[in-house]
């Protein structure tokens, strides 16, 4: 789910210079690099999320930022966009540093949800490797869905570029509903399972779209930006699946 579109992705030169125009060996090398960076970023993200969720001081700081409502959201979005911009740099190690910091920030944001989910399901004392731990269940389920969709997108001959407009329309609709909920409009709907299911389906579509878009439009020197794009899809899907598994009504 790319929040940035640059001239490197949108003009005709970008398509010519993208990984899709490389040799098979070069394309496979690009994919290996993207998914290696993605996997390492997942470790950093989840590691920081679990650490913050068990550190009362850090957790209180994070919840204080987001407890400020719309201002907290703006602070998060500004930091998010800034770090994503760094991942687009073609000069290592700036892009890798941006990706690492982005992963840590996402971990901080995910921590309160992990804490809430463990409290809601009575799993605070469970080890993260315990099969009954709701966080592990959500991560495994998200990994299975994400892995299946991204593999299908890479191997199928179907073109998912037509999904772009509908996916972004759905994203801004759900994001807008979330903003309204901050002001007390439709707050109960945000807590319902229907919104979470809609987010999961939406991010599933983004996985298909973004996976193919990375191959068609991302130059081979932008593996960090591609990994960040896939991370956003995975993390949002994980958060919503975790919310669904944590429901007890």
Main beta sheet: none
Number of strands: 0
Please identify the structural class as seen in this structure: mainly alpha
Order of helices and strands: HHHHHHHHHHH
Distance separating the two termini: 31 Å
Quote the average pLDDT: 87
Portion of residues within helices: over 70%
Our count of domains comes out at 1
Work out the strand percent: under 5%
The low-confidence runs, each spanning 5 or more residues with pLDDT under 50, are: 4-14
Spatial shape: globular
Radius of gyration: 18 Å
Number of helices in the DSSP assignment? 11
Description:
- The chain has helices spanning about 5-10, 10-15, 25-55, 55-65, 70-85, 95-120, 135-155, 165-180, 185-190, 195-215, 225-245.
- It has about 250 residues and is mostly helical.
- The chain has one domain.
- It is globular, with a radius of gyration of 18 Å.
Write the layout of secondary structure elements.
Layout: H1 7-10, H2 12-16, H3 24-53, H4 56-66, H5 70-87, H6 94-121, H7 134-155, H8 164-182, H9 187-190, H10 193-217, H11 223-246
Helix pairs in contact: 3-6, 3-11, 5-6, 6-11, 7-10, 7-11, 8-10, 10-11
Features:
single chain; 249 residues; mainly alpha
Gist of the model:
This protein has 249 residues and is an all-alpha fold. The protein has one domain. It contains eleven helices and no strands.
């Amino acid at each position: 789910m790319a929040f940035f579109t640059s001239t490197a992705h949108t003009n005709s030169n970008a398509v010519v210079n993208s990984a899709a125009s490389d040799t098979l060996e070069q394309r496979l090398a690009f994919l290996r690099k993207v998914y290696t960076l993605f996997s390492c970023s997942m470790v950093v993200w989840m590691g920081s999320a679990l650490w913050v969720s068990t550190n009362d001081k850090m957790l209180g700081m994070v919840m204080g930022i987001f407890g400020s409502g719309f201002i907290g959201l703006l602070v998060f979005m500004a930091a998010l966009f800034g770090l994503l911009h760094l991942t687009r740099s073609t000069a290592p190690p700036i892009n890798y540093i941006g990706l690492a910091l982005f992963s840590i920030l996402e971990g901080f944001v995910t921590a309160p949800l992990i804490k809430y989910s463990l409290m809601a399901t009575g799993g605070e004392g469970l080890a993260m490797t315990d099969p009954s731990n709701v966080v592990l269940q959500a991560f495994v389920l998200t990994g299975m869905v994400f892995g299946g969709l991204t593999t299908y997108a890479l191997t199928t001959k179907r073109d998912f570029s037509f999904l772009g407009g509908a996916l972004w329309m759905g994203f801004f609709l759900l994001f807008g509903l979330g903003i309204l909920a901050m002001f007390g409009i439709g707050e109960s709907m945000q807590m319902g399972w229907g919104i979470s299911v809609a987010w999961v389906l939406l991010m599933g579509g983004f996985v298909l779209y973004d996976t193919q878009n990375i191959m068609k439009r991302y130059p081979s020197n932008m593996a960090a930006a591609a990994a960040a794009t896939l991370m956003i899809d995975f993390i949002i899907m994980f958060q919503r699946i975790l919310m669904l598994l944590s429901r007890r009504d």
